[in-house]
Design goal:
single chain; six-stranded antiparallel β-sheet; four-stranded antiparallel β-sheet
């Protein structure tokens, strides 16, 4: 056993041991095995995760759990106290702020210190490979699959030697417990996310790959065009300006106009006018409102202005269009703008 592995960053450990104050996980002492009573399993990427145990336990001073092993994963976090982990390759000290992972078939023995109790947050999981889900991959599933695969692969290669909980994975035990305790809306989702966070933050400690998968990125001009045109559709019936739409995207009007030129091949006013007319055509066909009322309800300043725009764009007046639509609908045909 290497000396560095035995010492486990003594400066950091000493700093953790000096922390005083209330026990963060004291609320879990009321019903420490509450989460064990829940039958929770879920899919994460290509894996099924089944919670076997998720609890807080206190080992009295000098208590020994003799050598044993499991066919699945057991995550051990030490929130308070001290003790020792004994593996086949040697003995390792345990102090508050540490964790270790005993993966499948790892033989280990746990001992509480001789003078004080040692608390342990234990998460015991089945991690089962599943067939690929039948999904279109349109809602981010592919990114979850990539992250789940990377995490489980990392966990499967981690050594059992204790390390510091650098990314505060153990705090998520309390989040899961409080979700159960409070019976909050969405408790299952909170517990699920808590377990995933424990897995990710555990794997991150020993993640050594220099290659980090990039997060999904957008073509920003396409994205802004989609947002701009949706904003126009949502607000076309009232006075609307290029500046207002650009401001909603946090860009300048000139930039928005360039985007509309690129994707719609027309000006802002042209796009807005065309959309208003398309909606008004529907209303002329299916509504009995007057031309003046329809003009006002669809963003035109007056019936006369609507008459001018309609004539310019479609070569007929709104009244003529309505009459023609009534005739064509009677024959089972709709002539859109």
């Amino acid at each position: 056993m290497a000396k560095a592995a035995r010492e486990l960053d003594r400066g950091s450990i000493q700093a953790l041991r000096k922390q005083g104050g209330p026990f963060l996980f004291a609320p879990m002492q009321a019903e420490p095995d509450a989460l064990d009573r829940l039958d929770i399993s879920f899919r994460w990427g290509h894996y099924g995760i089944r919670i076997l145990r998720c609890h807080l336990i206190a080992f009295q001073a000098g208590h020994v759990i003799p050598y044993h092993k499991h066919h699945n994963y057991e995550f051990h976090f030490i929130p308070r106290g001290q003790g020792r982990l004994i593996l086949e390759d040697g003995s390792y000290p345990l102090h508050a702020g540490m964790f270790y992972l005993t993966g499948p078939q790892v033989l280990h023995q746990q001992e509480a210190g001789p003078r004080e109790a040692m608390y342990e947050l234990c998460l015991h999981l089945d991690i089962v490979p599943l067939e690929e889900p039948d999904t279109s991959m349109e809602w981010g599933e592919q990114w979850e699959i990539v992250e789940a695969d990377a995490c489980i692969q990392q966990l499967s290669t981690m050594e059992a030697r204790p390390v510091l909980d650098q990314y505060s994975a153990m705090n998520w035990f309390l989040t899961a417990y409080q979700a159960w305790q409070e019976g909050e809306f969405g408790a299952f989702t909170t517990i699920r996310q808590s377990i995933i966070q424990i897995l990710l933050r555990t794997a991150r400690v020993q993640h050594t790959s220099q290659h980090q998968p990039s997060l999904p990125s957008r073509d920003m001009n396409t994205y802004r065009y989609q947002l701009a045109t949706q904003y126009i559709r949502d607000n076309y019936a009232r006075p609307l300006t290029l500046s207002e739409v650009a401001e909603s995207l946090h860009i300048c009007g000139r930039q928005l106009q360039r985007i509309l030129d690129q994707y719609a091949n027309e000006t802002f006013s042209g796009y807005l006018e065309r959309y208003r007319l398309a909606q008004l055509c529907q209303a002329l066909t299916h509504s009995e409102q007057t031309i003046e009322q329809l003009a006002y309800n669809h963003g035109f300043s007056s019936g006369s202005y609507l008459h001018y725009v309609f004539k310019k764009r479609l070569g007929m007046t709104p009244a003529q269009y309505r009459q023609r639509q009534q005739q064509t609908l009677a024959n089972g045909y709709h002539d859109p703008c």
